[in-house]
Structures are given as structure tokens and as C-alpha cells.
Write a structure and sequence with these properties.
128 residues, mainly alpha, 6 helices
């Protein structure tokens, strides 16, 4: 099966999820604690999924999901590494959003959920 992703659609999805992610940080006082705990990570992985869908617009969904999961897990595992240069990078706004600060096993679960949501959106809404 050949996949043809519309890059404008994926760019719009990336922007929408980015805004939702930033809003999730702003409205933490209004959301239940369990949602605050994982929503940002779920949305982060969803953006990664859509970003790879944008970049590799002709690849199968399974490829996009696998590379998004590998990338997200790699970033999470990188949080086990600490040195002055990377910790300084993490303390910038963009560095903190992309690289995170501390390793948590639960983040790997949240990334899997975010990528699963991306698969469902892609298969049942976008690519039908």
C-alpha cells in the first residue's frame, strides 16, 4: 500500500498539537493531577509522530510509528546522561521542552500512548 501524506495537513496537525501542549502547561491548575502528569508527554510524542509523518510522507504508518517511538525513547534515555553542556541546554526553554530533565519509565508509556493516538488519527481520519 502506497501512502501519500499531505504535508500541509501534517504541518497543521503539528501546530495544533504544539498549541495544545503549550496550553496543557498553562492550564495545569484546571486539569486533574493524573492528566497533568502525562498529557505533555503524550502530546510531545504525538508531535514527534506527526513530524516524522511530515518528513517521511510516503512511508508506511508502521515505519513512522517505529521511528517516532525510537526517537522519543532515545530522548528519554538521554536524560540519564548529565554533563554541564547538556544540562545547560536543558535549562533553556526549547532545550527543556525537547530534551526534558529526568528519566521516568512512565514517560515511555506516555510516549507509546501518544504514538498510538497518532496511528489512530492517521489510519481512521487522515488516510482512511
Amino acid at each position: 500500500m502506497t501512502v501519500h501524506r499531505n504535508r500541509l495537513t501534517y504541518l497543521a496537525l503539528i501546530i495544533i498539537v504544539l498549541i495544545a501542549g503549550l496550553c496543557s502547561r498553562y492550564f495545569t491548575g484546571y486539569l486533574p493531577g493524573w492528566i497533568n502528569l502525562c498529557l505533555g508527554d503524550v502530546l510531545w510524542a504525538l508531535i514527534v509522530f506527526f513530524l516524522f509523518g511530515f518528513i517521511f510522507s510516503a512511508k508506511k504508518t508502521s515505519f513512522i510509528a517505529a521511528i517516532a517511538l525510537l526517537f522519543s525513547s532515545g530522548i528519554e534515555l538521554s536524560q540519564l546522561y548529565h554533563s554541564p553542556w547538556i544540562d545547560a541546554l536543558r535549562h533553556t526553554m526549547l532545550g527543556g521542552l525537547v530534551l526534558g530533565f529526568g528519566f521516568l519509565w512512565s514517560d515511555l508509556v506516555a510516549y507509546s500512548v501518544g504514538i498510538a493516538i497518532g496511528i489512530l488519527i492517521e489510519r481512521f481520519i487522515i488516510l482512511k
